[in-house]
Amino acid sequence: MTAEDEVIIIGMGGRAFSCQERGGELTADHSVQGQKGPVLSGVEGMKIEQIEDSEASQLAGELTRLDSLQNILGVTFEDVSHLQQALVHRSYLNEADDFPLSSNERLEFLGDALLGHVVAERLYYESLDFSEADLTNLRSALVRTETLALIAHSLNLGDYLCLGKGEIESGGRYRQRNLACALEAVIGAVFVDQGFDIAREFVLRILGEELERAIAGKLEKDPKSRLQEVVQAEQRLTPVYRTDDVTGPDHDRVFVVDVFAGETLLGRGSGRSKRAAEQEAARAALLVVTSQQSTVDSQ
Fold first, then answer.
1. What whole-number distance in Å separates Cα of residue 188 and Cα of residue 113?
2. Within a 10 A sphere around the Cβ of 18, how many other Cβ atoms?
3. Set 184, 193, 278, 280: catalytic member
């Protein structure tokens, strides 16, 4: 193997390692001080030699970790540092001053824009009968935090995030915002590493059934929207949501929300987020409102 074939990867402790292939085995030979541009390619399927040196062993673990995530994502990165950076939460950098990669926030920005574009494009061309308002509502439902967090959870993305100790202890691996932002960062990383076509295919694949239901027009209007239409039509009022109670630790909170029309309590709901609790309250209120209307109509 020539010097030009040497590959570089940054371990999660912040050290960069030079690697050489010997007899089908990938061996960490030495650390490279000041390396800012890690490149690692073709590691899938390679056997990593057991090395006594603690930092080299750390490298072996990092290679295995990243290879596992690439298998889950269905994407093999040309430069695995792009994937590494997509996993770095800003809290990790507060505790690793010499870590050479920045946080995933720039990749998140890029992935958010790409996600919105791909979803909008697909809905536009596949949903010709939908109005602008319909398309906007469907896109919002597909790219909202809750949807992205569910997809990230299905990919076990939280297990791979690099977080500060405090963030981990407060349940950061399961926090919806962290998961959604990390997924957007991964989308950005795929785009930077593989280009638009592969990134577009990746977005369409991970959205899967959610996107297909939207295109088929099977996403029913959410309970809050339906309740607002009913209450405004019948009472000329806008429903108001009030948080009644919040219980549980930060990473496992339960919200209880009441919904009112004027001073009249219409319904109560609970959920793991304020938005979910509001939807459940609206759902409960719809049962009451529609039942009352049915009674009036029968008289």
1. 9
2. 17
3. 184
pLDDT in tens, 123-175: 888 877 777 877 888 888 889 888 898 899 889 998 898 888 888 888 888 88
Residue pair 14/96 in contact by the 8 Å Cβ criterion: yes
Of the residues 62, 79, 108, 112, only one is catalytic, namely 112
Tell me the three state secondary structure of residue 87.
coil
Q: Residue holding tokens 């029968």?
A: 298
First CA to last CA across the chain, in angstroms? 88
Please tell me the distance from the alpha carbon of residue 225 to that of residue 280, in angstroms, as a whole number.
12
Q: How far is CA 268 from CA 141, 171, 254, 287, in A?
A: 23, 27, 13, 11
- Asked about 146 being catalytic, the answer comes back as no
- CA distance linking residue 36 with residue 137, whole number of Å: 42
Give the pTM.
Answer: 0.60
Taken in order of first residue, the domains within the chain and their CATH numbers are: 3-73 (no CATH), 105-215 (1.10.1520.10), 223-298 (3.30.160.20)
Return the DSSP state at 104: T
Active-site residue, 159 included: no
Helix (H, G, I), strand (E, B), or coil: what is residue 297? helix
Give Cα 223 to chain centroid, integer Å: 24
Sheet harboring 254-261: ordered strands across?
240-247, 254-261, 264-271
Q: Which of 198, 200, 227 is nearest to 211 (CA)?
A: 200
